[in-house]
Amino acid sequence: MTWSFSGHGTGGSSFDGNACRFPGVPYGPNDCNGHDNCHTRDISIHNYGNPDEVRNCRLVGLADLRLGSDYVRGKVAYYINKLIGFGVAGFRVDAAKHMWPGDLENVFGRLQNLRSDVFGSGKKPFIYQEVIDMGGEPITMKEYFGTGRVTNFKYGVELANIFLRHSNQAKWLRNFGEGWSMPPTNDVVVFLSNHENQRGHGGGGAKVGNPKKVTT
Asked: Region Disordered: which residues (predicted)?
């Protein structure tokens, strides 16, 4: 996977991710996490067993916004509210485990209601957060239940273990879900396949396989 750390956006504004300069917002170097709160030499994540490092350091070298800053929070909320004004009704938060739950709670608390002329009055946007939790890291899905639904990567993997790998038995599906030590249904979004486990990268677990093969 390759990343472009500098260039121009579709709107014409320039950006330099290495220096955390995004004049179109604007964001500057003080708006990204740095050596003051990330202890690694290159400001990148090396130890996924350290929650502070996972949330305060750069993921694969990408600039990491200082979401603890009120200014940054305000800019993020402003952008989301602009989309809500256009009629957007829901949002997927990528790599949510790399953000502190309290920071996300603050941003989401600033969001306006959905457009009443489209969705009715008093409706909030639907939010779900990508948190890859296969049970091997200290950051867990349940830390994010208070700010929206969370992706349940275990769901598709467990079904694949039955129908594709035959390492488990279909007779146990009678209590599939919470009975299999999965999180509460109302707190998660379930799926068979997404861009992570299709390719077996990003910590999304082993490849689930082609869901079309799961037929009756």
From this structure: 195-216
Q: Is 158 a catalytic residue?
A: no
Active-site pick, 130, 133, 143, 196 = 130
Task: Say whether 196 is catalytic.
Answer: no
Write the DSSP assignment of 157-178 as a string of letters.
Answer: HHHHHHHTS--S-GGGGGGTTG
Domain spans, the chain = 15-66
Per-residue pLDDT tens digits for 52-110: 999 999 999 899 999 999 999 999 999 999 999 999 999 999 999 999 999 999 999 99
User: Which one of 36, 70, 94, 117 is the catalytic residue?
Assistant: 94
Of 100, 94, 104, 93, the closest CA to residue 52 belongs to 100
Q: In angstroms, how far apart are the furthest CA atoms of the chain?
A: 58
Q: Give the pLDDT band of residue 215 (cuts 50, 70, 90).
A: very low
